[in-house]
Every structure is written in structure tokens, then in C-alpha cells.
Design a protein that fits this description.
164 residues; alpha+beta; Aminopeptidase; 4 helices; 31% strand; Acyl_CoA_acyltransferase
């Protein structure tokens, strides 16, 4: 698939560019949620880390948005979460924001899930990511209750679904 000025490529989950973008995302989320997680016990922090973990065997697709000069602009994963299809680990680099990268990655994940027979795509986010929340709403995602595995360690998560 291609979009103006960038293309979407399916890559291996361990592609070094994808791994690097996930590190950038982790640093960004750590910064955004640092105060919210400050009072966590080590046990709660470990449970949260386990809830957020993405295991390669559950990954259906890892996608990168790549600029004309081969610079990675964004990343997303589509994974199976039990019987569900979940959008995970969406990031758009700071320099690529407002170019439609996040929207293109989201639309591609939704299309892949739909073509594979999913009845919906779900995702988990949070209040400290307002730009993501706006994009998900604009893409047609609607709010749902917090779902497993986030209920215990992230009960204030904001969760959404895209229904086919």
C-alpha cells in the first residue's frame, strides 16, 4: 500500500526499524505516564508490564510507514488477543505527525483484520495520549469498557473498538 509521500510495508516483528520505533514509543509513554504510575508497587508494575507485553507468536502483522528516502515514520502491530484482533504499539515519529501516517497505519490494520474475518478491532490507550484518542475517534473507533489483560493494572485505560 502507498500513501502520498510514504508507503506502508509489512515487516517482521523483530525488524530493527520496528524495534527501534517501539523503543521510542516506550520512552514517550514512560514520560507521559510517569506520575500516574509513581505509587505502583513493584508487583503492580510487573503485572502491568506483563499485560502490555506483545508476544511474537500472537502478532498477525507488523507494519511500518516509510518515507520516500526509506526513513521509518511510524509503526503498528495487529495481534491476536484470544479471540480478538487488537491494534497495538502505534507510533508516529515527531517529525512525521500531521502527515496522515497514523491514520494510514490504523486503516491498514483495520483492513487486514476485516479481510481475515475479524468482527471488530479493539485497542487500549489512555488519557495522556490525546492526539491518539482524536485520531481513533476520527477513524471510527468507539469507546468500550476496559478489557483483559488491562482491567487489573490499568483500570482507567480508555479502550475502543472498530466494528465491521
Amino acid at each position: 500500500m502507498s500513501e502520498p509521500g510514504f508507503r506502508i510495508e509489512k515487516v517482521a516483528v523483530d525488524d530493527p526499524r520496528a524495534v527501534a520505533l517501539r523503543r521510542v514509543l516506550d520512552a514517550d509513554l514512560d514520560e507521559r505516564y510517569r506520575d500516574a504510575d509513581a505509587d505502583d508497587t513493584p508487583e503492580v508494575a510487573a503485572k502491568r508490564e506483563a499485560a502490555l507485553a506483545v508476544h511474537p507468536e500472537d502478532v498477525v502483522a507488523t507494519l511500518l510507514a516509510i518515507d520516500a528516502d526509506d526513513t521509518p515514520l511510524g509503526h503498528v502491530i495487529l495481534r491476536r488477543l484470544g479471540e480478538e484482533w487488537e491494534l497495538k504499539r502505534l507510533i508516529v515519529t515527531a517529525g512525521a505527525r500531521r502527515r496522515g501516517v497514523g491514520t494510514a497505519l490504523t486503516e491498514t490494520v483495520v483492513d487486514l483484520a476485516r479481510r481475515a474475518g475479524a468482527r471488530r478491532v479493539i485497542l487500549q490507550s489512555g488519557r495522556m495520549q490525546p492526539e491518539s484518542l482524536r485520531m481513533y475517534a476520527a477513524a471510527g473507533f468507539t469507546p468500550i469498557p476496559v478489557y483483559e489483560p488491562y482491567i487489573e493494572t490499568m483500570p482507567r485505560s480508555l479502550c475502543f473498538e472498530y466494528v465491521f
